[in-house]
Each structure stands twice: as C-alpha cells, then as structure tokens.
Inverse folding.
C-alpha cells in the first residue's frame, strides 16, 4: 500500500513539474501546489515574503541562501512595503465565488472611507485634541479587530445526561475567524442601503470606538463564560 | 492588495527600474530637485537601495504652496507649487450641477480642507496668451489635447479662476454628455423629458437641463448679470413677450421659473453675446469641456425607432455658435474627453489615439480649424514628488508611504500620471 501511494505521488509530481515549468524562467522551483509540500527534504529553506528577514539573517557559509535550495513560493507572495498578513486574510474572507477583484475593491473603499471620516474630525479639532485622533487606516483596522475579538470560547461537553458549557482559551486563528465571520454576517444580513465599502468602513470605525454589534456579541460571550466558570475542571 | 509578484530567488530576479535607482542617489537637504533625474549605472545589484524606515524625498520639501493669489503673476519658478482656492471663491467655482471638477477630487478636497490646483507649464502658457492678446479682432480658440487623465480640465479651471479675477463673463459648458445621453432609470420621475421647440419646429428642447444650466450661469457670474442689457424685443409665444433693455438677471429668472422657455432663453443669451455692439459689454470666456460629444452620435429618441442627431437639439445648435470665430472681445477654451464616454451606449466607439482629428472627426475639426493647440502631458519627476509632498502635508499619506521604499513603489506603479496617483493613494497607509 505504501509503495503504491509513493509511486502515485511521484507521478503526480512529475506531471506538475512539466505543466508548471513550461514557459517559465529557469529558477530552482519545482512545483507550486500545496499538496506536494511533503516531498521537500529537510535541507530546503522556506520562501520569505518579508524583506527584513534578509537583513536580519546571520550570513555564514553554511546558512546563507546562496548555497541552500529554496522551496517554491505561492503566487501571492510579494516584497511590497504595503503587505500586511492580517489585511490579506480579511480580504479572503470577503471573497465570494472567486471574484478577487471585487473583494480587493471593497477593502480599498473601506480604508478610504475610514481615512476620510477621521480626517474630517482631525481638521475640525483644536490643536490639543489633534494628538489623540488617529488618521492611519491600518492602525484603526488593527485596534478594531483587537477590540472585537473574544478571548474565551465555550464548548459543550456531555457527562452523563447533562451537557455543560465549559469556557476555554481560544487560539489566535480561531479568534480572527470568529471576528471576521461575525462582522461580515452582520454586514450581509439586512437589505443594503449603501455600497459594500461604506458598510465595512462604518463597522470597523464603530469597533474602533468600542461600539457596534460585533463588540456587543463579544461582550455577551464573555459574560456567559464568566457565568459558567464553575465548570472549568469538569473534563475528566 | 498585492500589486506584483516575485519569485524566491530575489538575488537573481530583482525588478529594478530607473526611478528606484535614481531616487536613492538624489540629494536631500536644501538643494533643488531637478526636473529629470539622471540614470546612474550600477555594476553590482545591491539589496539595500531603499530603506523601510528612513523618510523619502517628499518629506524634505519645505515650500509647497504658492504665495501669490493671482494666476496672472505666476512665473516659471512657481512650477510644481500648489495654487490654493480660498473658501470665498469656492462657492462660485464649484457649481451645483455639472461640476468642472471630478467627483473623487472633490471628496478628497472636502476631507483635506483645501482645494488646490498645481501650477504647470500648459497653464502658464494659456494665461500668458490671455494676457497679451488683441481683443479688438476676432476670437482666439485654444484647444487642449493629450493623454487621458493628465489635467485638461484642471488647466481649464485654472484659466477660469484667472478670468474671474479680471472681471470677465463666463459661459460654462462643462458636461454636454448630459444633453445627448439618455438616462436609463427605472424611477419614472427622474427621467428627463424632450419636447418639440416653439422657436423652430424641426428642433427639440430640453426643459429641465436648460433650467439647471441657467442656475449654473447665475452662480458663476454672481455680480455681473445686472450690468448687461439686451438690445432686442423677444416673443416667446403668443402671449409672452419681453421688451428690449432688460438685464440678464431678469432673463435668467424668467427661464428658471418658466421651464418651457428655458432653452430659448439660453439661446438668446448666446445671441446677445455674439452680436454685441456697446463698448460697456464685458469680455466673455466660453469654457467648453468634452467638445467631441457634440460632433458624435446621440441616443435620444422622440419617436420609437428613430435616433436623433445632435444637430436637431436646440441646446447643441446654440453652443455650436459660440465655438465659431465670428465674434469679438472674448476667448474660447476647448477640451477633449475620451474617457467620459458613457458605457450604456454601444453605438459610440472608444477612440484610442490622442490626436484631435481622430477624436473630433472631419466636421468638428473643420469648425475649429484655425486654433491654437496646447499639449498637456504627463508629470515630470519634480511635479510627481511635489504631489506626494502635498499629500504628506495634509496627512493623506501617513506611515509606510513616507519612507524611501514606499515612495519608490508608488512611483513605479502609477508612473507620472496624475489620476493614477490620486486613485492609488486613496487607500494607502
């Protein structure tokens, strides 16, 4: 069974090599799909989308990239200055039916609307208040997600005939997933009166000020977790 | 979010361009930035050209705004600086309907609290012609051409600002696509009507659009309309007449109150301007934007199955008269527009060339034949950097885009075209 599986994997690997390297320049790429990751031996280095990692790396003879082989990078890696992994992930949550250009446009409109709303406040305020107003849309986005993301989640455990709801700590990926699904579900629910970019921008601004439906939902979760704190040690 | 991709071997497949190499080698403190930055040869590829923390070139510029308020006194040393329009003048330049400025520019200006036009060479050329020309002979016509999104309407508004400070009368025709295009809305009371005209039975009126044009005309010439008088008696219909010697302001009020006559009122105003006799008549400027719409095809129907030609529309017939050179004591500025063609109409084909003969056609080019052409090109390197410096001063760009690497990336993607920088910097941080 194992031999057959390995044989099939290597055949698929050759097929992918032939299909992917046709028409491309000769670099040390082998294939670009995730399914073939396991074939790389341990001596291969990971591809890096970050420019700073090249400068921070200790450049000895054994560890330098000039001597090592590098795995293939997916098509979405860039070296641009404006790359942010959290923003990129949020854009993929907005995506529907494979329409990437529309998701990109919605995020861009949301960031401009945040910037316009904050700038109007900034230019109308007195010089003492100007230091406290944040104008950078990326900072507003990060703080909004931190304000609206929950720390504790509840799971159901059946012991005997009773089902208890037990609080536990959430991982970072799960926190981001919950925030983005709550936000987008609320935005897509009612009949829309505005464009999509305006709705996303308004929701992010409200979360930045600790207002809005996503922050309320997180606070409700935290309250019910506190109410059930007696059942933390029930798992046996 | 991700504009371009690279593969893993950054050392071998580094994507460098002229600008990224050159901006790092320019001098920072106090000296002037040249108009064209020279290329420097690099023998070895260096990863450390642009830093992610040091501020870029645009933050070192100290002088951004121009001190002079009169565009007639600007010189070649003021190229690249921003000419500000204060709030008292904004109420008469930014019109209620059919604005000259674009929508995105106006939302940006309302957020940033300032409305600025950049001083460039084609603008200085136009104002210089208007200053030193002879107004006792026939009218001069100035035609602006160039690639899309490079500033033809902005130079026109710069000239309109100059003319208002000299006390001229302005005839604003900023968007003739509204006369010619059929508006496809499912809301019935928003559709616009077409009616047979009373003046001439072969032509067709736009009652609501003409009333809006008259409101624009009243807003842009706020104080001048009471000093100009008519010289003839006009009969609009059987029971309505106006005597001679009536001021323009009463005519405009008549047209707005009585919508059935509004297009004929607009025609009378233009007739008075063309046949002027008295020495007290002010100088007039006719600012016509996107003039290639008048010489094309329309999508309006007055009977089912038959499309109208633009010659049969009364407003278009009147605005063609002012494009001719048979009158005195004024100037005509014409701009072309290829990107504003409405997408609903499949009968109008998009033109890809910049030359005015290809855009206007045989008929339009013959009407405008002896004209003075003005070329409006892309930015120079110095102007692009001053555009970014203006954004940093007004806090539109804050954070990563002020660094060397951020600037180099913006200029590589957008090039030197003004609209691309305006659109791309909207969502940047």
């Amino acid at each position: 069974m194992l031999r057959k599986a390995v044989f099939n994997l290597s055949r698929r690997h050759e097929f992918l090599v032939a299909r992917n390297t046709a028409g491309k320049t000769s670099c040390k790429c082998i294939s670009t799909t995730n399914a073939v990751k396991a074939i790389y031996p341990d001596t291969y280095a990971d591809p890096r989308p970050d420019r700073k990692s090249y400068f921070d790396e200790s450049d000895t003879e054994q560890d330098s990239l000039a001597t090592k082989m590098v795995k293939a990078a997916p098509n979405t890696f860039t070296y641009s200055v404006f790359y942010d992994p959290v923003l990129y992930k949020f854009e993929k949550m907005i995506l529907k039916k494979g329409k990437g250009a529309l998701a990109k446009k919605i995020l861009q409109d949301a960031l401009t609307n945040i910037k316009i709303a904050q700038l109007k406040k900034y230019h109308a305020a007195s010089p003492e208040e100007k230091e406290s107003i944040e104008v950078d849309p990326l900072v507003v986005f990060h703080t909004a997600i931190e304000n609206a993301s929950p720390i504790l989640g509840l799971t159901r455990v059946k012991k005997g005939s009773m089902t208890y709801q037990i609080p536990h700590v959430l991982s970072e990926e799960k926190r981001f997933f919950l925030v983005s699904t709550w936000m987008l579900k609320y935005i897509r629910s009612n009949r829309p009166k505005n464009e999509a970019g305006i709705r996303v921008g308004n929701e992010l601004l409200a979360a930045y000020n600790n207002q809005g439906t996503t922050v309320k939902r997180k606070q409700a979760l935290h309250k019910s977790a506190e109410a059930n704190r007696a059942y933390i040690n029930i798992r046996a | 979010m991700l504009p371009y991709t690279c593969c893993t071997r950054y050392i071998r497949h580094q994507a460098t361009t002229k600008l990224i190499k050159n901006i790092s080698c320019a001098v920072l403190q106090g000296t002037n930035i040249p108009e064209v930055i020279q290329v420097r040869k690099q023998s070895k590829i260096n990863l450390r050209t642009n830093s992610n923390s040091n501020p870029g070139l645009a933050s070192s510029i100290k002088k951004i705004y121009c001190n002079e308020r009169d565009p007639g006194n600007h010189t070649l040393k003021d190229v690249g600086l921003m000419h500000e329009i204060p709030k008292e003048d904004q109420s008469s330049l930014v019109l209620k309907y059919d604005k000259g400025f674009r929508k995105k520019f106006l939302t940006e200006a309302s957020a940033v609290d300032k409305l600025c036009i950049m001083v460039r060479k084609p603008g200085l050329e136009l104002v210089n012609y208007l200053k030193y020309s002879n107004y006792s002979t026939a009218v001069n016509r100035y035609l602006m051409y160039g690639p899309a999104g490079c500033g033809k309407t902005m130079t026109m508004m710069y000239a309109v600002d100059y003319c208002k400070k000299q006390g001229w009368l302005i005839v604003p025709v900023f968007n003739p696509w509204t006369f010619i295009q059929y508006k496809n809305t499912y809301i019935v009371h928003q559709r616009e009507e077409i009616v047979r005209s009373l003046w001439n039975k072969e032509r067709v009126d736009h009652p609501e659009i003409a009333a809006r044009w008259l409101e624009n005309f009243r807003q842009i010439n706020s104080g001048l309309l009471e000093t100009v008088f008519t010289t003839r008696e006009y009969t609009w219909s059987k029971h309505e007449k106006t005597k001679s010697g009536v001021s323009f302001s009463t005519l405009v009020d008549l047209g707005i109150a009585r919508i059935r006559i509004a297009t004929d009122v607009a025609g009378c105003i233009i007739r008075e301007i063309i046949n002027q006799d008295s020495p007290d008549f002010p100088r007039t400027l006719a600012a016509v934007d996107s003039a290639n719409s008048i010489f094309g095809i329309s999508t309006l129907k007055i009977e089912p199955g038959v499309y109208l030609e633009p010659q049969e529309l009364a407003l278009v017939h009147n605005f063609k008269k002012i494009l001719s050179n048979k009158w005195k004591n004024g100037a005509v500025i014409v701009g072309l527009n290829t990107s504003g063609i409405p997408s609903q109409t499949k009968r109008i084909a998009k033109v890809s060339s910049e030359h005015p003969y290809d855009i206007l056609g045989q008929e339009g080019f013959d009407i405008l034949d002896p004209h003075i052409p003005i070329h409006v090109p892309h930015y120079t390197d110095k102007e692009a950097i001053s555009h970014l410096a203006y954004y940093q001063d007004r806090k539109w760009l804050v954070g990563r885009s002020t660094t060397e690497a951020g600037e180099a990336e913006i200029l590589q993607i957008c090039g030197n075209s003004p609209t691309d920088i305006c659109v791309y910097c909207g969502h940047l941080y």
User: Anything to note?
Assistant: Chain B touches chain A at residues 1-13, 47-48, 52, 107, 110-113, 395-396, 398-401, 403, 405-406, 409, 426-429 (CB under 8 Å). Residues 141 and 182 of chain B are 30 Å apart (CA to CA). Chain B has 14 helices and 13 strands.
